[in-house]
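## tool: complex_structure
## caller: assistant
## args:
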Amino acid sequence: MSTNQTTEAPAPAIDPRLMVREEGFAGYLGEFKRKMKTGELGSVPVVLGLILIAAIFQGLTGDFLNADNLTNITLWIAGPGLIAVGIVFVLLLGEIDLSLGSIAGVSAAIAGVLSARSGVNEWLSILIALAAGVAMGALHGFFFAKIGVPAFVVTLAGLLAWSGLQQFVLGDKGTANVLNDGVIADLDHYFVGDGDIAVTWIFALAGVGLFLAGQLLDRRRRTAAGLPARPVSEIALRTGVIGLIAVAAASTLNQSQGLPLPLVIFLGIVVITDFVLRRTSYGRQIFAVGGGIEAARRAGINVAWVRISVFMISAGMAALGGLFIMSQQGSADKALGSGNVLMNSIAAAVIGGTSLFGGRGKTWSALLGILVIQSIITGLDLVHVNQSIQYMITGAVLLAAVVLDSVSRRTQKSSGRG
Amino acid sequence: MSTNQTTEAPAPAIDPRLMVREEGFAGYLGEFKRKMKTGELGSVPVVLGLILIAAIFQGLTGDFLNADNLTNITLWIAGPGLIAVGIVFVLLLGEIDLSLGSIAGVSAAIAGVLSARSGVNEWLSILIALAAGVAMGALHGFFFAKIGVPAFVVTLAGLLAWSGLQQFVLGDKGTANVLNDGVIADLDHYFVGDGDIAVTWIFALAGVGLFLAGQLLDRRRRTAAGLPARPVSEIALRTGVIGLIAVAAASTLNQSQGLPLPLVIFLGIVVITDFVLRRTSYGRQIFAVGGGIEAARRAGINVAWVRISVFMISAGMAALGGLFIMSQQGSADKALGSGNVLMNSIAAAVIGGTSLFGGRGKTWSALLGILVIQSIITGLDLVHVNQSIQYMITGAVLLAAVVLDSVSRRTQKSSGRG
Amino acid sequence: ACGKAGDDKKDSAASGDTKSIGLLLPENASSTRYESFDKPFIEAKVKALCGDCNVKYSNAEGSASKQKQQFDTLIAQGVKVIILDAFDATSTASWVKEAAAKGVKVVAYDRLATGPVSAYVSFDNEKVGELQGEALVTALGAKAADANVVMINGDEADPNAAYFKSGAKKALEGKVKKVVYEASGEWKPTVAGQKIGTAITSLGKDGFQAVYSANDGMAAAIITQLKAAGINVPVGGQDAGVDAIQRIVAGDQAYTIYKAYKPLADSAAELAVNLLQNKDIKSVASATVDSPTDKGIPAKLLSPKVVTKANIQDTVIADGLYKAADICTADYAAACTAAGLK
Amino acid sequence: MTGAPVLALRGVSKRFGAVQALTDVHLEVHAGEVVALVGDNGAGKSTLVKTIAGVHPIDEGSIEWEGREVRINRPQDAQGLGVATVYQDLALCDNLDVVGNLFLGRELKKYGALDEVAMEKRAKELLDTLSIRIPSVRIPIAALSGGQRQVVAIARALVGDPKIVILDEPTAALGVEQTAQVLDLVERLRERGLGVILISHNMADVKAVADTVAVLRLGRNNGSFPVAGTTHEEIISAITGATENAVTRRQARIAEEAK
Amino acid sequence: MTGAPVLALRGVSKRFGAVQALTDVHLEVHAGEVVALVGDNGAGKSTLVKTIAGVHPIDEGSIEWEGREVRINRPQDAQGLGVATVYQDLALCDNLDVVGNLFLGRELKKYGALDEVAMEKRAKELLDTLSIRIPSVRIPIAALSGGQRQVVAIARALVGDPKIVILDEPTAALGVEQTAQVLDLVERLRERGLGVILISHNMADVKAVADTVAVLRLGRNNGSFPVAGTTHEEIISAITGATENAVTRRQARIAEEAK
Ligand SMILES: Nc1ncnc2c1ncn2[C@@H]1O[C@H](COP(=O)(O)OP(=O)(O)OP(=O)(O)O)[C@@H](O)[C@H]1O
Ligand SMILES: Nc1ncnc2c1ncn2[C@@H]1O[C@H](COP(=O)(O)OP(=O)(O)OP(=O)(O)O)[C@@H](O)[C@H]1O
Ligand SMILES: O[C@@H]1[C@@H](O)[C@H](O)OC[C@H]1O
Ligand SMILES: [Mg+2]
Ligand SMILES: [Mg+2]
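## result:
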């Protein structure tokens, strides 16, 4: 057996095994190719899936990409999308909340009965409805975190009890109409700046500008601290892609009725919750609890409080989502929030890339996922086949949308450590 | 600092830290008390919950413990109970199957349409229906285990697609009736031995006898191998308790119509699946995959096959459950398997003590859990209060039933190792 | 053999309850009628006819299997007369037969349950559809002949939905130009709203002149979407929910179908009490109908009515279904005054 | 050692189900003292550590901190007193990256938001002092080697300002160089006046840095020795409970064979 | 060593995302040979073991078994060839009890059903030879101490009939007595003609039982030495890549202070 030995100089600061990306644009492309191979593409497969769905339905009907239809889709995603944002929080803990559909229903019922039947001020009605939602979430959180009842059972009990409450609140008359031209009606119908196209452009460009500024600032701070930073070429590319999307969206919306309020609110909430999750201690704590409850506990995190607060957030989001659904259907009825509402929202979060097993995901996945689902539903409605066939196709397309993602993630499958 | 040191004799064979139970009945009682304190009571809290529920509804209505009502309950648990047995398998893997309600529906639809409309032999229709169910499960398993799509999404797609198929199979006529006095009708209506009370007694006593024989045999083998074994007093106590239950059940059933076929089949399947899970390599593999996929993989277990087969089992059970539900309602309709069927079955498995996070549970929990749920449902039906109030009460009772269990488990909470 | 099960059954309360009437209704989510009207009306009438009788009510929540359990539970409780609004009328043949064997009588309510039922009270569901179609044609007036119609139907899993659809089509045939878009709203307002949204996309804002909605809940969402798109065409539903009456008052909805629940409920209660007390039922149920399984069932058939802005006062208010105050909340006060409601 | 101990356990017992893991255990740690806690596998060392760290509250006995009796029911309680713990099973969050784990529960902030740049910089510095090379501090913990994970866990304990540091087999997975660094670290902690509890099965390491050796055996105290003037053999026979054991047998056999 | 090696790795490379964990690695193991695989933390030892065990298939290079080229894509493949592996992270199922884990995938049966009595008896015997005390073999793995778990993992490798046993830091969590037993075990395996790959950071253990020492450094081969005639210092400098390192510095400083 040979005896050969290399004696090297003291350890260099950077690990030589880390493949460093080439500088500039070429490096970016190389990295992209590598990620493509190893399946670290993040949201790219879902976005591709979305494009595919749009292309197919456009081909079949010629109407899918029409500005009115796309505007409709942005209106319809707000309600289930907000519920999905709440679901993302719960999924990050590795838990599930089955009650969110019922909570959406109760919240709408409360707001409807107070404002339309009892003549309470509409803003106050909304506030009470949201507070009731948050309180229900707190109750779930309490039973889960403090008593130790599995979240599945607590929220299943909630699903039943709150839908009973919803019927009870609506009472014999059953359905409460949305006030004409009131606040709740506006949730779905108002276009910011009353459809002024300038408003849409300002929003789009401000968004892109802020993104660019943030990226550049971060780069400056990292370089100053001697840490590796994103190259300027990559920042330019990213800003370019986002800019393109923003411009396309703005001009489409302006071809129809302008910037829809529900879209602004939904996007705003996604941005805010994303910030909370990624850039605050609280968000970090949620990830920690979801990634390993025992490690989180030993790190001194108040696990019970994190859990309770997350159930409050999810319930609050559901309550808000319920108001958007109410606005969209023009009434609060006994069926609001039942049926597929919850499943669609959970599916949205999962399709968007949030793990069901905790510790991995972001609220943007709620947006992406609900876009996929609403596109399938709306696309099939445009094709208008039989209800039974529609169900079958929805199932198949849903699966197909996720297969793309799963296959690309395959190679990346982690296999433990050690 | 003091320096004191004890030098002991070589290590004894039994670890001195293990608290050994006193011999005889006194020891059994002591152990029970200790377990009570530390929350290792197993099914005891659920059984207590069941007794409480029975007592409350008996108090409210006077009809709950009536032999006809109890016989009814045993008839009705077979369908959802079999689905819950399938759920237990899936939960043991730490996964979920949302499609089981739809599969029950399709299976019933196929059996109904073939036998009642197309005149196919009823046994053959049943076989085809079951095979179709198993095939759907295999498809789910394939997408989950081989393609890597999360089980939640695969089975959600299944939920939609198969309920579309169900409507499609039933067609415009909508409902297929069960053949009069046919095999499917018998699933729910036949009483073994045509209501002969001797048959019930033979079943009950044979069951208890087999249990006792098994326990004694095990004890003999363990003692022979020099391993600690259950004391005779404990075996006597256990047999006594089981005997008591068996006698009470038999005499109640005989007061009504005798031994119901669905009860025999359901119990038989629980016993068989329990054996498979606890006493075969295959069952061990399911637990291993559910307890830690990576450890199972490294142990050389064919993880993909275990996953696929489990989804086949759950779908097969659901298909069978669907036939029982069909027999009970007298028809296969478009709504069979929808609504709360799936949630009730999942809740049954969880209430019975099967973990949602994999690796812990048994099929007996399906029996216990579905008894709890059906008792709540039937009890509330006996009380006849307002629907909305019923929902709220169901939620509350469901929660209460599990709180008992959770509180007793609290002290037992594991806190990592090391 | 040493005996048959049930031989030694004592004559307990369970084997005969002469003061209870069972009431089984099919669901409560897609329509408000069952718990708002059917149930309270029946309870009141039973009380009026038999002071110490009581009604044991359960709701099947859209599941035939659950309804069968409730049916059996009533029998286990010793109830001798059951008013049954079957969730799925075709599956009840064996239930009713089993019940009859135990001496339990069944009154089929609203939907004609199969099996040897003792009597039947209902509206004709096909007729409901026809009235809906005719009302839509009336609302279109002179424009009817050139009108394209969008149909948002009920859930395919509900057998009634098929009757409504076929009745409405029968009435529309030849009277309007064409049904240009047809979809299931699944009895869900949100779904219905989205269906109409896509109908607008594929047909264009001028692509249709009227919308048929199978019930009021879906009509609410449809109207909301149409308004948002700036489209004003007649839309109608059924069930005469208070929200629908409000929309009719405001001119948003063209009509609804009012099934006169009170007479329906009253007749059912009367039949049930008579059966319980072994009195004659022919006086109430003078007609006869045939079901797929049985012939010559004594029946009472009522006609549903169309409600438009013009006859609100004479129908739902006159029948005591609603008080004007229920309808004329702040948001609708002005419209009410204009419509002359009081 | 002079003065009141910073930490003192008095008659602590702990039971898990049917297993009596600790029985009447006593332990004292003074400021500036390194106490080595040794014992056979399953002796109860980690359990003892966890009772101090608040992971498992004690069943019986009492804990004194700077002379006052305290109750430690949750990890927060221990951290509040100034106990930093490196667990044998590391207890890191697999889904968080190295930086996230290092600062978990003690994040650096700027205008209320996380200051990732500052944390990343500080993380690199900390890891450098322990001479470990990690491909990137932005890699999730799950992707690290056993030793890399262990060093991250040790570095975590240094992020706060503790009075007592508990290290449960900190060098078990470490290479020779990293082990030397950790021993240096222990000495630096002592010099800064901190109390250290060091669990190790490596007698050479124990003898190199500890002042006192406390022995646990089957969940009970089995002696406490000043390191100076106690031999390897004495400690080992306290651990195994016998002067004749597998270690001596193996040594004897090898000596035999060498002849 | 004479004859063809049982196992030979030729130019093996393995990449994880952006990390090149192994580059062009060669390794040979003969029957009856104990090869110690050493290297710094993160050098790639565990990764190499996992490629052999079929946990991670290799990216480049080839694996030869008894002279024939083979593909090892799944753990079953490696087990089929006769490779038994004790992983650094143990890879036990937390929810199964000790007996369940020991026999996982190789259960003893009687009339087709599991023979729990036979397995329990055999489990006790196996654990006794490794002189570990576990409160009960029916306790779930999650309730065991670090060392107890490690012994269970080692015992697992002995159920079955392997040709090569791979031990990734088997004694890291073990007490002195148990460590001695494991070293005895390694020698017994060699005597039975098995090949053994032993990963360890403990040079004394390596020198005590290994025939050959293979050094990995930053994912590449950095020398292979016969144990006889190689000093501690030579191995350590191959591991750290420098003659001047934290270990020598620490020794120098202690020598300095001792003066
Ligand atoms: N959560 C638990 N449930 C039940 N028993 C436990 C639990 N944790 C530890 N034990 C038992 O307590 C005893 C002491 O375990 P502990 O982990 O404290 O040992 P240790 O001294 O740290 O051993 P090692 O050196 O192997 O790490 C062991 O017998 C173990 O089986
Ligand atoms: N699944 C993975 N994903 C990404 N990187 C990984 C993965 N597994 C290992 N690595 C990296 O590969 C390198 C080698 O790791 P490995 O576990 O083989 O080291 P080791 O030699 O066993 O170290 P130790 O002595 O600390 O156990 C490390 O830098 C590690 O970060
Ligand atoms: O009244 C309607 C009812 O008959 C039908 O079955 O469900 C929907 C209701 O609107
Ligand atoms: Mg330990
Ligand atoms: Mg390693």
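## assistant note: The first strand of chain C starts at residue 17 and ends at 25. Chain C touches chain A through 49 residues (CB under 8 Å). Handing back to user.
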